[in-house]
Amino acid sequence: MKILVINSGSSSLKYQMFDMAREQLMAKGEVQRVGISGSEPATLTQQVPGRDPYKIAADIPDHKIALKLAIATLTDPDQGVLAELSEIGAVGHRVVHGGEAFTHSARIDDRVVRAIQECAGLAPLHNPPNLSGIEACEQIMPDVPQVAVFDTAFHSTLPRHAYLYAIPYEWYEKFRARRYGFHGTSHAYVSQRAAALMGEGDLKIVTCHLGNGSSVAAVDGGRSMDTSMGLTPVEGLVMGTRCGDLDPALVVFLTRWLNADIDQIDQWLNKKSGLLGLSGVGSDMRDILQAASEGCERAEIALEVFCYRVRKYIGAYAAAMGGLDAVVFTAGIGEHSPPVRARACEGLGFLGVAIDPKKNSAGRGERDISAEGARVRTFVVPTNEELVIARETLAIVES
Ligand code: ADP
Questions:
Q1: Which of 79, 101, 157, 287 has its CA 20 to 30 A from that of 43?
Q2: Cα 290 to ligand 1 centre (Å)
Q3: What strands, in cross-sheet order, belong to the sheet with 367-368?
Q4: Å from CA of 122 to ligand 1 middle
Q5: How far apart are CA 204 and CA 229, in angstroms?
């Protein structure tokens, strides 16, 4: 079966087309600047393995037009990979927040759409554009089955001592105020890869998804037992522009010190903090590493705080699981930055974590970077969230 995977964001629509007979990626593309008017036009970029990238500019006012253009490109006689639209057997959608309603992926019907809408209050920036992608598909391909795959679902196994905040219990009952966790498809995929590489299933693994958004998960025997993001993706690690863990009382002080309203503070904690706020250089780890190597003190501080926080979570999650068999690094920074991996693992020798400097800095893709004889194995595993979504979609459609 051929499956289209859609990741619909506020101003973008990313897609990947898979042939599931061999789990082969046929094409991937991205429509950018959806619904943004201005001097620059919206664009669609598509890549097909073995061909030159294809890029066009167009007027794209909404997600329906974006999807129409993506489908026209996928079925284009020169640029496409499909003879006709009817070759698409199912569509899998990334949906960020499934709340407590969704512990697994779900075939989309009216009831599921309503439940995703109900979760939108918890993810106002993410769930509405995810729903726009679903609506666009329903209009353009009404007979093709659609499946929602939730970022939160993998973490639905968190025990209550990990997901409850120590706030009045009624707030949990009334507002479902609790920790949910995100990046679930990524943590699921890379922990499964690590288990496959070790040839065992019953393992205690800490997965570190370090990208623009970052999170850590404690995965015990394939089940998520704790994770660093919470009610929203702001909690936990230092991120590109998000602060991560914070004393909540700081918000109270900021409103007084700066005479700021809550929307401004929300904006600062989400968009002006993290690597950007600490360094003043930018939110991109490559820029931070470059500036730090040129002697920029604040870039060095940002790097130090970032790596320290990853290290602290690895130690905390080893304690939470009562042991540790493997650490996995993934996403933009986790996959591509040897210095960050090295600094995040510094001092963890007492747990049995030791990485080989040569293996850490050489090579590409999926690999074991542990030092000879290390009790805990350390892996780099490129994540593949789209493949997980395609697999889940296939499993649901076939059942
Ligand atoms: P997103 O959360 O947007 O999916 P990614 O997983 O693509 O993010 O990760 C983006 C981050 O990865 C950026 O901070 C970028 O600087 C970092 N990154 C990408 N390549 C490298 C590299 N070679 N060295 C260090 N950081 C890198």
A1: 287
A2: 14
A3: 223-227, 214-220, 204-210, 326-330, 377-380, 367-368
A4: 26
A5: 19
Cα 155 to Cα 157: distance, rounded to the nearest angstrom: 5
- Report CA(253)–ligand 1 centroid distance (Å): 33
> Which residue's CA is the closest to the ligand 1 atom numbered 23?
336
pLDDT in tens, 106-117: 999 999 999 999
Atom of ligand 1 minimally distant from the CA of 331: 6
Amino acid type, 185:
T
15 alpha carbon to ligand 1 midpoint, in Å? 20
Where are the CATH 3.30.420.40 domain residues in the chain? Answer: 2-150, 200-380
213 lines ligand 1 (CB under 6 A): yes
Which residues of 48-127 form beta strands (DSSP E)?
54-58, 88-95, 106-107
Q: Give the separation between CA 204 and CA 194, rounded to whole angstroms.
A: 10
* Token pair in block for residue 157: 């196994």
Q: Out of 3.30.70.3270, 3.40.50.720, 3.30.420.40, 2.60.40.2340, select the CATH number for domain 200-380.
A: 3.30.420.40
Q: Which residues are catalytic?
A: 151
For the chain, the average pLDDT equals 95
Fold of 2-150: Nucleotidyltransferase; domain 5 (3.30.420)
Q: Which of 229, 278, 333 to mutate to test the pocket of ligand 1 (most atoms within 8 A of CB)?
A: 333
Looking at the CA of residue 383, tell me the nearest atom of ligand 1: 6
Q: Note the pLDDT tens digit of each residue in 21-59.
A: 999 999 999 999 998 887 788 999 999 999 999 999 999
